[in-house]
Amino acid sequence: MADKYVLKFALSAVVERRRLTTLLSLSFTLWLPVTAAHAQQARPDLSKITLEDLMNIQITSASRKDQSIMDTAAAVYVITEDDIQRSGLTSVPDLLRLAPGVQVARIDANKFAIAVRGFNFRWSNKLLVLVDGRSVYNRLESGVHWDMVAVPVEDIDRIEVIRGPGGSVWGANAVDGVINILTKSAATTGGGLVRIGGGTRNATDVAARYGGAMGGASYRLTGQWLDRGYGIQPDTHQRSGDDSHVATGGIRLDWNGSTNVVTLQGDGLVGLSGTRLPQLTGPIPPAGGWQPTDWTTETSSSYVLARWKHSTASDSSL
Fold first, then answer.
1. Rounded distance, CA 158 to CA 256, Å?
2. CA 66, 160, 213 angle in degrees (round to 5)?
């Protein structure tokens, strides 16, 4: 892969007329040069691709095996890497707005309610959400902490959205559909990348990545810090206490042989998420009553995932 410098710059502004609030967002993305053993695949010219080729996009979430969209008996929509880059979005919940049939509602500055086929609320438990085939469902509260699904968008290869029952393939929580977030192989992310962003709502957004080759394997190191600012209450024009701070870090190793493909990856996350809830200050008003109080929730998670694929023949694998 030839050495190159690439710098992306984006500036956006949104004006909310009801509250006369201006939201600004500024981001820089810099690819650092590096010579890697595995060359990245050249992107095809979409204007020269036929309709049949577009329908041959490979997916894995419908039947847990590689197949094209044309051969899939399900309502499938794929958010591709090009869609992610063109959108300029930097979070997974916002990216899901690109998929038709997915209801994405933002509750406050750090909480989302996402569902398929209606019945949308914060703890919707009929939608299975996966990251590289690993469930991120929270059994304690029967839902998904979307503010803690902090996958760097630069590492996402595609997002497969299946609208419709998938319980026979994936089991519980796949009643209304399946969302599978698939990250890129370490062999395709050689080199360095730094993204720095900020604004009036997302105060700080920093992500860094470095990948290369080591022997016959490829590796990728990723780190991200996301600092979301608090919102403003429309009635009192005071802060809502719903700011959040999330730090993530991870590593991925990929080894591709003639008949074996081995993947080992692990991530860790720590975060603070705020909210404002009423608190009872006394038994009888006016000596007591309900007083809005800021609460902070500490969150931490980690995982290790290993996957081995062995090809026994041209059309079968284990």
1. 20
2. 70
Q: What do you get for the CA distance between the two ends of the chain, in Å? A: 32
Question: Distance between CA atoms of 167 and 177, rounded to whole angstroms?
Answer: 8
**Secondary structure of residue 207 in the 3-state scheme:** strand
pLDDT tens-digit readout, 207-257: 999 999 988 899 999 999 988 877 777 777 777 778 888 999 999 999 988
User: What pLDDT was estimated at residue 65?
Assistant: 62
Element (H, E) at 10: strand 6-16
- What is the pTM (predicted TM-score) of this model? 0.76
The secondary structure of 242-299 as a DSSP string is --EEEEEEEEEEEEE-SSEEEEEEEEEEEEEEEEEEEEE--SSTTTS-EEEEEEEEEE
Work out the average pLDDT over 105-130: 85
Contact 251, 221 (CB under 8 A): yes
Looking at 61-143, list the stretches that DSSP marks H as alpha helix, in order from N- to C-terminal side.
81-87, 92-95
Q: What is the mean pLDDT of residues 1-17?
A: 47
d(CA 35, CA 299): 38
In our burial notation (b when 16+ CB lie closer than 10 A, e otherwise), range 115-145 reads bbbeebebebbbbbbbbbeebbbeeeeebbb
How far is the C-alpha of 196 from the C-alpha of 204, rounded, in Å? Answer: 8
Quick: pLDDT tens for 81-110. 989 988 888 889 999 999 998 999 988 888
Contact 31, 190 (CB under 8 A): no
Q: If you compute the radius of gyration of the chain from its CA atoms, what whole number of angstroms results? A: 22
Give the position of tokens 């990929």.
254
Average pLDDT of the residues in 265-281: 83
CA 146 to chain centre: 9
| More confident position, 164 or 252 | 252
